Amino acid sequence: MIAWIRATFLIFTQAFGSLLLSKKTLFFGAMNLGYGVLIALLFFFAGDRARQDSLFAFPSLFVFVQILVPLTAVYYSISAVREEIAEKTLTFLLTAPIRRSSIWIGKWAAATAVSTLVIGLGYLCAVSSALFLPVAAREGRALHGSTSMAFAWAVVAGPVAYAAMGTFLAVRFRRAMLAGAIFVFSWEGFAGSTPANSGVRDLTVVDSVRTLILRDADSARRFRREMVSWASAGEFRPWRGDSLEEALEEFIPSKEEAWKTLAWFTGICLLLALLSGAGRDYETAPKE
Q: What is the pTM of this model?
């Protein structure tokens, strides 16, 4: 067991340094910082005419949570495996006295750590813009702490689950980047937008992350009302006096259920990666 932990940590440190210092970090770093610039522009031009919390919440959900977080984590995790396969360096690693499980778990952990760092910097930039721009702070209308903390769940929970899926795709499929794009833009986008009673959303990461956000974003009232109305397929009607808190309990899972779903999703993806990569031949894989 100790030998396995040491080998996994060795793989983690090697992959972490390689991913962090690669050119892709500049690309994804710029994308995530661009999200911070978007928030700054919104607050500069509309900050004195709209509720700050909802003004922050809507673009954060659609740009940050549903696009940047999954895209960054999935790409890093796939890259951690497939680049070594393409360069044939994984072949030498597989012949070393190291269990394959150490390789896959170490690379997943490294991709999770690097993507969390890159995503976190972009989020910090966005929150700083919302908190400290003069127009945002005018008349005490700066972003509330509950809203910024709520969306931080995307930084904490998202990369762990998305990197697990990316690791499985990288181990199992030769065209893993294509499979990752389909997962992020088709499955997460389609299944995550189905009605609440369909049950399909339980098979996504975005729904659980969205649940964590909705449960904690107390100050973003308009955002919560519209998201609950969407999740209920129109059954929640605030203009008729329906209670938001009652609708939350009826149509939105609890935080405990969201964490359980994320844990199951991550665990199953990692298990599939370990099973798929247990005896797979990577010597003949084509360069991607």
A: 0.89
pLDDT digits (tens, 9 = 90+) for 231-240: 776 677 766 6
Q: Could you tell me where the DSSP H helices lie in the chain?
A: 2-20, 23-46, 52-59, 69-86, 89-95, 100-132, 134-137, 145-172, 176-182, 188-191, 206-216, 221-231, 244-251, 255-276
User: What does the alpha-carbon distance between residue 273 and residue 252 come to, in Å, rounded to a whole number?
Assistant: 31
CB atoms within 10 A of CB 62: 10
Give which of 248, 79, 237 is closest to 163, Cα–Cα.
Answer: 79
- Compute, in degrees rounded to 10, the torsion defined by CA atoms 228, 231, 235, 237: 20
103 in Cβ contact with 94 (< 8 Å): yes
8-state DSSP, 126: H
Q: Going by C-beta distance under 8 Å and a sequence separation of 6 or more, which residues neighbour residue 278?
A: 100
- C-alpha pair distances (Å), 77 with each of 9, 146, 159: 16, 31, 10
The Cβ of residue 232 has, within 10 Å, a number of other Cβ atoms equal to: 19
Q: Are 199 and 205 in contact (CB under 8 A)?
A: no
- 10 Å CB burial of residue 284 (0-12, 13-18, 19+) is exposed
Alpha-carbon span 62 to 282, nearest angstrom:
37
Distance CA 221, CA 56 (A): 12
* 114 token code pair: 């690097």
Assigned token pair, 80: 């951690």
Question: How confident is the model over 161-219, as pLDDT tens digits?
Answer: 999 999 999 998 888 899 999 999 888 888 777 766 566 777 889 989 999 999 998 88
Sign of the C-alpha dihedral computed for residues 156, 24, 276 and 113 taken in this order:
negative
Cα angle for residues 24, 56, 39 (degrees, 5° grid): 50
Residue-wise pLDDT tens digits, 70-126: 999 999 999 998 887 776 666 666 666 678 888 899 999 999 999 999 999 999 999
